[in-house]
Amino acid sequence: AQITKEQVKNLLGYSNNIQNISLFSSIVSGDVLKALVLVKEFYYEGKDLVYIFQQMMELVHVITKNKLKADIDSFEYSSEELTELGSLADSNNVASLTIIWQMLLKG
Question: Is 61 in contact with 1 (CB distance < 8 Å)?
Fold first, then answer.
């Protein structure tokens, strides 16, 4: 049997990109209830909550790069994920992304 990247991520308690994008999207759109439900699901699934903060910072970075029309390492994200990241880049300005970055950085 071959070990996949997803199996290793699950074993380490890492959430996948789709889950992280969904959480970030619900936070920036102001859907607090959905964000809380997702965090609760992460907790009950045994996901590493510290890793989720790191992933949120990575998403802010990628969305900002997308907003500034910089190259994105597309091998990290599927076409569906890249589409959602592009949508998030269109719906957020650089100033709000900077504030979100600072909030995540401070924890």
Answer: no
